[in-house]
Amino acid sequence: MTEAKITELLPLPDDWRRALAVVAHPDDLEYGCSAAVAAWTDGGREVAYVLATRGEAGIDTLDPARCGPVREREQRASAAVVGVDTVEFLDHRDGVIEYGPALRRDIAAAIRRHRPELVITLNHRDTWGGVVWNTPDHVAVGRATLDAAADAGNRWIFPELAEQGLEPWNGVRWVAVAGSSAPTHAVDATPGLERAMRSLLEHRTYLEALTEQEPEAYVRDFLTETTTATGKRFGGRPAVSFELFGR
């Protein structure tokens, strides 16, 4: 039997200078996407992070009042490893983020502040592919980010933003969704892979609660496996995949 042809992923466009990544929780960007971020910042591009929550409900053994500050510190350290200095938190409540105008407005405001050409978010679909169910927070933030990319350019949807000095920004050219079950594009992970591993390792408190495996081994195994699997559709190079939406 002839083996089915693997559909190749296209290179993500690189003719941009500023990107904004919007996700739900600390660590969302570190599960693979940060390898692309490291390569981008090495090339002189600006990348900022906006997180809807501080991940305060993410560790069962740690009370949210203590967990939130720990995870914020780990996220800032993690971002610094891949050359990201700007990390903002919207302070929505972890685990029960609601999709709707309030979330869209907060993300549209962030887009107006940072004025990116590329917006990055995480899988907004119900599953990670097959029967692996996605979380409501990821779905809400991913969907709201796709909508907010357009909201940011419309003066009349959230007129209060302009009154606060945030003028409309219609310059978002693409929204790239990481972790999608229907990827279309990819970025070579080779230049940034080791730093992506170090970046994920900064979430040590979370990782030690998540798995009984040694964090170093867990991180290396996970990121090697995922980038290698994606690379089979990207010329055999380790890669980070995205589903790309144009505007």
TrEMBL record:
The protein's GO terms of the molecular function aspect are: hydrolase activity, acting on carbon-nitrogen (but not peptide) bonds, in linear amides
**What's an example GO BP annotation here?**
glycoside metabolic process
Which top-rank group of organisms is this from?
Answer: Bacteria
Which InterPro entries does the UniProt entry name for this protein?
Answer: GlcNAc_PI_deacetylase-related, LmbE-like_dom_sf
Record keywords, A-Z: Zinc
One Pfam family this chain carries? PIG-L
Keyword Nucleotide-binding in record? no
Keyword Zinc appears in the UniProt entry? yes
This protein's name: LmbE family N-acetylglucosaminyl deacetylase
